C-alpha cells in the first residue's frame, strides 16, 4: 500500500460487530471486531517479535467464539490507531498500512471463501 493512503472516516458498530474505514483513495473496508481483536498487532498477541506484521485474514470469516466491543479509539500520530477493547486489552497499535493490508473485502482478498 502507498503510505499516502489514509483513512478519511472510521466508524464502529459494536451492535453489528464491525469497524468500517473509508480510505482516501475511495476504498471501503469492513472488519469484524472478532477478526480485528484476534489480529491484534501487539507483540504479546503476535507471540513475539518474530511474528510482528503477520495476521490471519481468515479470522474475519469465521463464526466468532467471543464477543468483543470497542470502548474507545485514539489516533496515534498520522499513521495508526490504538483500540481500547472491552476485554481490557489496549496494547495494539493498528497502523494504516496494516489495516489496509488486512482488508478482508473481495477485491483485496479474492481467496476468501
Automatic annotation (TrEMBL):
<keyword id="KW-0479">Metal-binding</keyword>
<dbReference type="Pfam" id="PF06155">
    <property type="entry name" value="GBBH-like_N"/>
</dbReference>
<dbReference type="InterPro" id="IPR010376">
    <property type="entry name" value="GBBH-like_N"/>
</dbReference>
<keyword id="KW-0408">Iron</keyword>
<dbReference type="InterPro" id="IPR038492">
    <property type="entry name" value="GBBH-like_N_sf"/>
</dbReference>
<feature type="domain" description="Gamma-butyrobetaine hydroxylase-like N-terminal">
    <location>
        <begin position="10"/>
        <end position="100"/>
    </location>
</feature>
<protein>
    <recommendedName>
        <fullName>Gamma-butyrobetaine hydroxylase-like N-terminal domain-containing protein</fullName>
    </recommendedName>
</protein>
<dbReference type="GO" id="GO:0046872">
    <property type="term" value="F:metal ion binding"/>
</dbReference>
